[in-house]
Amino acid sequence: MLGQSQAIQAVRAQLQRYADCDVQLLIEGETGTGKELAAREIHYASARRKHPFVPVNCGAIPDSLIENELFGHDRGAFTDAKAAQPGLIDHARGGTLFLDEVDALSGKGQVTLLRFLQDNEYRPVGGGATRISDARIIAATNMNLESQVAAGHFRRDLQYRLNALYIRLPPLREREGDVALLAEHFLQAAALKLRGPPKRWGEDAMRALIAHAWPGNVRELDNIALRAYMSAESAVIGIDELSVAEPAFAGLEPDSRHRTNEPDVGFSAAKTHAIRKFEQDYLSRLMQRASGNISAAARLSGTERRQLGKLLAKHGIETKQYRPR
What we know:
This protein is 46% helix and 11% strand.
């Protein structure tokens, strides 16, 4: 989970601690905050890492099939059951079963899950023998389960079972300084995914990104970075290209968002932008002085050629534009 904010650093420390606590865990967070990613980090940092991580969206399981999906069925359990079929709990044996959108379970589904969590015993549909599971259950929801319980939509006893350990993932608007870092990361990831040249955010676009409310959180930022990369024909993505990628930014002028040197912008964000601007200006002047020769530029700056090349790629600076014609 990328980020340098205090909020995300606290979450990472919590994930590491909980990886060694082999009990049920509840993750709450808004849509797009990375709940499955957090569950995977816990799984792969735990002693269960060599066993399966099995994700399931509880909202996609029909009420009539909840027991069959979780516990499987034996041969002859119903008309079309020509062979035994293991359930999700069997697939997660020794590993982790991740129940996403657990709040979407119906009353029947909640009772079914609660009965299993009480003693980790289950019986396949049509089966006679009781089996025991050693899968760890991690549940996630984009709702506040306490409020769901108070409203009568979720069982209090099931909440207690799931909530042995608890993590709240902060929304992106609470992660000061992380928007710029993530925006750069996702733009580089888009270049790799699309096998295209490196590109960088213009200052006006980055100011708009930082000022955005991000209701869809990290997932929304990832999608916008991909669309912006595809929309931009040049190496610099400005507010115009950003507006094409996301209509929410349409109509913004380059100076219509807060500048990074204003006091209402967080220190981390301002620092990130100052470093980025310094690197861009310095590299441009350096390559101009070296006439586009990376080896000469490396000698002038006292930097390793390989490291300098990485910095040039990071900022989308093409050396050919500085070579004599």
